[in-house]
């Protein structure tokens, strides 16, 4: 079974590649380099559907897309769907997570709870559409640690990582319990029915 992965983010391609290889070797995941639609949804589900629909229409193959981000409790779930947009500030030499740490510096929140969210849309051309979500709970660190992963990984301390940041986990450790792995797990039965 072939399925298109509708993302232009090389880190996601790598993580999905590893997750699929270790859990669903029956699937052949192919990349997508077609037109990138405007992601103007206000929810993870809307944006994931926008991306998966565009890829399914362009390729004629079943397509899945991940829309993801970090949701910080004391910020009411921000940056959420705008997590990648914040990452754009990297151009000016400021990492996305530094902006987030700055925002939290003056807020009294001893727990600093947050979660990574991955919403995957699966779109079959001319057929069904499904949306699943995986959540990886944890807290925000006060300073970055670790070199692995991408995005907010250096400042995210997953509850199941014994005090290490997501960037201190090996790729195999991250891919065994991340929000992306949990969402893909939920997609499993729907992929079998393709
Ligand atoms: P595509 O739309 O092409 O898939 P993107 O990077 O623009 O790529 P999103 O709009 O879903 O994807 O943005 C997700 C952002 O959330 C991403 O750029 C990171 O800043 C953050 N993020 C998502 N998953 C993450 C993870 O596993 N570790 C760290 N940060 C993550």
Helix-strand string: EHEHEHHEEEHH
Please report the number of helical segments: 6
Number of strands: 6
The first-level CATH class is given as Alpha Beta
Q: Radius of gyration, rounded? A: 17 Å
Largest sheet: 6 strands, mixed
Shape: globular
The low-confidence runs, each spanning 5 or more residues with pLDDT under 50, are none
Second rung of CATH, namely the architecture? Alpha-Beta Complex
Helix content: 25-40%
Description of the molecule:
This protein has a six-stranded mixed beta sheet. The model has no long low-confidence stretch (mean pLDDT 93). It is built from six helices and six strands. It is an alpha/beta fold. It has one domain (2-192): Maf protein (Alpha-Beta Complex), CATH 3.90.950. The site of inosine 5'-triphosphate (ITT) has 21 residues, from β3 and α3.
Note the main attributes of this structure.
6 strands; 6 helices; hydrolase; Maf protein; six-stranded mixed beta sheet; 194 residues; binds inosine 5'-triphosphate; dITP/XTP pyrophosphatase; alpha/beta; 34% helix; single chain
Concise structural overview:
34% of the residues lie in helices and 22% in strands.
Write the layout of secondary structure elements.
Layout: E1 2-5, H1 10-23, E2 28-30, H2 44-59, E3 63-72, H3 83-87, H4 96-105, E4 113-123, E5 129-140, E6 156-158, H5 171-177, H6 179-192
Parallel strand pairs: 1-2, 1-3
Antiparallel strand pairs: 3-4, 4-5, 5-6
Helix pairs in contact: 1-5, 5-6
Bound molecules: inosine 5'-triphosphate (ITT).
């Amino acid at each position: 079974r072939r399925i298109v992965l509708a993302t232009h983010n090389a880190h996601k391609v790598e993580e999905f590649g590893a997750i699929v290889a270790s859990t669903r070797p029956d699937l052949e995941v192919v990349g997508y380099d077609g037109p990138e639609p405007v992601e103007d949804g206000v929810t993870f589900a809307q944006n994931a559907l926008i991306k998966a629909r565009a890829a399914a229409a362009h390729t004629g193959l079943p397509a899945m897309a991940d829309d993801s981000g970090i949701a910080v409790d004391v910020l009411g779930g921000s940056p959420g769907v705008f997590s990648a947009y914040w990452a754009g500030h990297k151009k000016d030499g400021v990492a996305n997570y530094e902006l987030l740490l700055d925002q939290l510096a003056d807020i009294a929140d001893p727990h600093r709870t947050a979660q990574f969210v991955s919403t995957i849309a699966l779109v079959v051309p001319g057929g069904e559409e499904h949306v699943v979500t995986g959540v990886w709970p944890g807290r925000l660190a006060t300073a970055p640690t670790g070199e692995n992963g991408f995005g907010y990984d250096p400042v995210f301390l997953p509850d199941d990582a014994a005090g290490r940041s997501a960037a201190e986990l090996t790729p195999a450790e991250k891919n065994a319990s991340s929000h992306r792995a949990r969402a893909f797990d939920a997609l499993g039965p729907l992929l079998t029915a393709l």
